[in-house]
Amino acid sequence: MLKIKKSRLKKFSFHPITSFIVLTLFVMILSSLLSFLNIQSSYSRITSSNELESVVVTVDGLFNIEGFKYLISNAARNFVSFTPLSTLLIGLIGLSVAHASGLIDSLIKRKTLKIKNRTLTFLIIFVAAISSIINEVGYVILIPLAALIFLANGRNPLLGIVASFCGVAFGYGVTLFAGSMEMNLVPITENAALLIDDGFHVSLLSNLFAIITSTVVISLVGTYIIENVVSKKVGRYRLYSDDNTIISETKEIKLETVEEEQQKRLEEEVKEKKGFKNAFWAFIVCVLLIAYMLVPNLPGSGLLLDMNEKAYIYQLFGENAYFQEGFTFLISVMFLVVGLAYGIGAKTIKNDKDLIEKSSSYLKDVGFLATLVFFAAQFIAVFKKTNIGVLIMALLSNAIRSLPFSGLPLIIAILVIMAFSGFFVTTQTAKWTIFSPVVVPLLMQNNISPQFAQFIFRASDSMLKGFTPLLAYFVIYLGYLNVYNTEKEPITIRKAMSYVSSYCFIISITWILIVALIYILGVHIGPGVSPIL
Fold this sequence. Notes:
single chain; mainly alpha; 2 domains; two-stranded antiparallel sheet
């Protein structure tokens, strides 16, 4: 009997850059279709006089002459104003010097090699989660740093990239202190609460206990997911020779044996000690200078504070606070100064030309990242221009308004609905501005506090934040996956999302359980603040 070989269709996939082009065109076509069908909705907005006004949302169709004019005339502006690009470049300048001097490699080999894999993963996720206290610095600093740490520890750097990205994105609603998130959310929450109680006040610390507890829980669960689920998806890190034969794999074959490492340490011990001594004092000086610039009312101090604000926390994290706006730059400068001090002490840097040449080698992939960012910026800008995301949020807010539930079922339904909106709109303030006039009064009428409503929103914001290419910093994650990718085929948007899919699902369940347990147990979520009114 003749055996007939079954032919398998080769899986077709686009390069990430091509994918963003296709997605941009798809959104333009979809917007024109929705505009033609006159699909619209409305949502309630709180005015400056604390009254509700209705805002009608329509879709702006872009698959037409005017749409292409917009795309062409705004392409450069969309690219230049794309925040992840500037923050990434600023962060990489400092990292490149620290890496070129050998500081990062030496620190990793001296410190992290002694740490267990699970502990190291937990620390990365934990630091990534609390980094959200100051905007999105975790995306641009921790992602490349985690890749280097995992690679030096003989692990797949792709796993480090996934761990750090997930730590920031799916832990964005938590931190250990009140920070920029409170500055953004609390005023919106209080305005919504005033619709029911004209004397209600929401404290900046109203979610403090809940977010501290959630930070630890999310980090522990995230560590389990990375080590037991995601690591199997990502697999081992293979290095190929020119003839495509595997020359090494992580976990089983170290890039250098422990004996070779010890021998090299003995040979470079004196130089490294001097380098670390210089780096330590440079670090202390940087920290003291930054600390002094954060102290108000001293001679020459307060440089990083917005002295137009009365409360210190607003001076530090307010809308015009220099510390918040310049934090990525400060971290980059610190890496640069400390790295330079190490290089001079350890004699790994001969002169300025040597430093620039070594630093440039670390930045060799910036061209690819910039190209990827360009097309991602166009996709996100076009999507925002169409108003599709705002339309979806308006529809969802109306759906919340008509929910027939009460108590815990109502809380979970609101949590899931708001989380779903996060796939289309990733900006916290934009979402909470639309949802708060519905969610806060509805929950207050069900004897649930506005502060707990705000925490529910924070939880929902973290559930799907990392599982959408519409997140501006998703492109940084995708870009670094491809920078460290050694396979022939590029890592596509779909594959990048598949790496975080399990993390997204399990963390979402975890967030639902956290919110449910807080409500059932009635524990305080902040100083003197209960989930129940």
